[in-house]
Amino acid sequence: MRTPAFILILTAVAAALYFAFNLVGNDYLFFAGYTVLQYIVLATAWNILGGYCGYVNFGSAGFFAIGVYTTVFLYAIGQSIEEIFPEFLVAPMQAIFPLPVPVLIVIAGAVAGFIGLGMGYLTLRLRGVFFAIATLAFTVVLETFIVNWSFVGGSRGAYIIVPNEVPMFGHLIQFLFALMLILVIVALTTARLIERSKLGVGFATIRDDELAAEASGVPTLRLKLVATVVSGALMGMAGAPFPYYIGYVEPGSAFNLSYAVNSIAMPMIGGTTSWVGPLVGALLLGTLQQVATVTISSAVNLLIVGLLLIFFVIIAPRGIVGLIQDSWRGRSKS
Amino acid sequence: MEFDLLINAIIAGLMLGGFYAAVTAGISISFGMLDIVNIAHPGFIILGSYIAYIVNAHFGVDPIVIAIVALPAFYALGSLIYQVYYQSFEKHGQDSLRGLAFFFGLLFVTEVSLNLIFGVDYRSVDVPYIGGSVSIGAMEFPVRMLVPCLVSLVMFGGLILFMSRTFIGRAVMAVSQDPPALQLMAVDPIRIKRIAFSISIATASMAGAFLIIIQPVIPSAGREYIGRVFAICVLGGLGSLPGTLIAALMIGVIESITSTFYGPSWSPAVSFGLLLLTLAVRPSGLFGR
User: Fold this and answer.
1) How far apart are CA B281 and CA A247, in angstroms?
2) pLDDT digits (tens, 9 = 90+) for A75-87
3) CB proximity list for A73: less than 8 A, separation 6 or greater
4) pLDDT at residue B75 in the model
5) Contact call for A141 and B272, based on CB within 8 A
6) Domains, chain B, ranges and CATH?
7) Using the beta-carbon criterion (under 8 Å), do B37 and A132 form an inter-chain contact?
8) Which of A19, A71, A271, A286 has a Cα-to-Cα distance from A327 of 20 to 30 A?
9) Dist. CA A255–CA A144, nearest whole Å
10) Do B109 and A303 touch (CB under 8 A)?
């Protein structure tokens, strides 16, 4: 299938989903759906570096939070234009701020990608294990900075005053849901494009045997940097609308460990070798968690995610997609 | 006055560093010598803290005594985990990605389970010496810090002696360098690795008891130690126990000075910043081979 056709199909599915949700007309459905979609973007983004290159990123929550706090930062600037800018700039700035959410998403993506580049440059020359540990450390450093940075609320957190209605979309959550759908399309298309390009082949050589790849002239460092930037940027983009979704942001919620765990568990459970895996994993786990949060408790649902992650890593290393492929292959042989 | 503050900050840092040495000892063995990236280690430390808490709350026994009694249980847990790890990952060659995800899952499950059982309240132990302090001149030694530090140093010294003097200890050092050569000496490398990994988990029992003496514990407390222990381990040089000890003392002192002069909310960033710096500048650490 060619990429334009792929995008077309995704768009059709997304539009169908949006109108179906609208028909049901229950706001909760949009809230729950937003979370699941957000996880699809995070899982797909993680998989670009983790699944294709084999470099484990424990810092998904950090990149997500970069997106969240880019929004908070720009919102805070919009709130205090008179104090920050010289007089002649006040009027034009007031015209620009508050920035529309799609613009925030793009800026957040750029910031997260840039930070990903810096961190990747520092740590990607080392063995994969060191990179994994460094991403853990990176999240904590970032959280410490945010906690101590009072302009974006510090440890107290920050309130975002959100508009109740958005023209053309009705309720704000419907608008955010639609935005997330677009992000999902962007993420899945990017992942699929990478997979089928020369870039994806390069990533696979890194995953399978980095030393051999290096010896054969694959520019491994440059490829890994590309993967880190793309993956980080997508995670940042997923985080940007979050303050509008939740209305109140504090470091504990933006840096929540469940983002890191989920964005690893979902691709691992779905399957890491293609874009389908994270999608399947995120849909399954995301929906399961929404149901479990409502019916049991949020602590239990995290326990389920952890146990599923361990179970799949041990029993089904290639995830659900791998299991299905195996059963197909088995059937065609017999 | 400023000078007194500095001296006390350094002393507090050294005692903190002694405690960090115990926390890092396990990682130094599993990650440094066996190449098993056990990021779940801090989770087991918190488990040790909670075991000390339960027994102490019911019978009033000293946490350190409890930890020593619990050593065999932790050793067995370590054997079990290594067996699973070996069968599912190590045997099939290098798949560090899945191994990492496995330990990450273990860490997460430990934390969430403790959360479900005990809730998110801070838990602490009741020991007579917790409030006291010894002072020499202007120098203050809170006993709450001093006891864990001293016991930790004894344990660490024991580990260093064990690794350098006994047959099994030397075999552990050898298995990190050349497993096939060990096989030629009629030693089973898997058995040696299992023993070493079990020892590394057993140290978590002690470290857990120290932790809950020093400060109240919540299930998520383990997370802030992940970066710290790896920072110490990498800074000291992989596989070098003396290096780990020196790095632990260094990080303890730097963190203590930072929190005295710039406020405690900055101290977590210190070790992580140092870790990033070490990884970028000298990944083999101070005493690495």
Assistant:
1) 41
2) 888 888 777 778 7
3) A151, A152
4) 96
5) yes
6) 2-281 (1.10.3470)
7) yes
8) A286
9) 11
10) yes
Convert B183-204 into a string of H (helix), E (strand) and C (coil): HHCCCCHHHHHHHHHHHHHHHH
Integer Cα distance of B276 and B289 in angstroms: 19
Asked if residue A98 has a cis previous peptide bond (ω within 30° of 0), the answer is yes
**Boundaries of domain holding A69:** 3-256
pLDDT at A37 over 70: yes
State the ipTM, two decimals: 0.81
SS3 of residue A239 by DSSP: helix
Residue A23 sits at the vertex; the CA angle it makes with A18 and A26, to the nearest 5 degrees, is 90
Q: What is the pLDDT of residues B79-136, one digit of tens each?
A: 999 999 988 887 776 566 788 888 988 988 998 899 888 888 888 888 887 777 888 8
DSSP-assigned letters across all residues of A159-203 = E----SEETTTEEHHHHHHHHHHHHHHHHHHHHHHHHHSHHHHHH
The answer to whether position A78 is within a domain reads yes
Tell me the shortest Cα–Cα distance from B284 to chain A, in angstroms.
Answer: 10
Q: Is residue A145 part of a domain?
A: yes
- Take residue A155 and report the two structure tokens written for it: 């440890």
Task: Evaluate whether residue A279 is within a structural domain.
Answer: no
Contact A144 B279 (CB under 8 A): no
CA-to-CA separations, B117 to A302, B54, B218, B219, B230, in angstroms, rounded = 14, 12, 12, 10, 28
Residues of B in contact with A309 (CB under 8 A): 101, 104-105, 108
B288: left (phi over 0), alpha (psi -120 to 50) or beta: beta
Residue B217, strand partner residues: B123
Phi, psi of A220 (to 5 degrees): -60, -45
In three state form, how does the secondary structure of B78-123 look?
Answer: HHHHHHHHHHHCHHHCCCHHHHHHHHHHHHHHHHHHHHHHHCCCCE
Joined together, the tokens standing for residue A263 give 């964005």
% chain A with pLDDT above 90: 31
- Select from A257, A300, A306 the Cβ nearest to the Cβ of B105: A306
pLDDT score at A289: 87
C-beta separation of B27 from B229 below 8 A: yes
Average pLDDT over residues B248-272: 84
Contact A137 B272 (CB under 8 A): yes
Look at chain A and report how many structural domains it folds into: 1
Asked whether residue A276 is assigned to any structural domain, the reply reads no
B221: Cβ contacts below 8 Å, ≥ 6 apart: B46, B49, B211
The reported pTM is 0.87
Distance to chain A for B257, nearest Cα, Å: 17
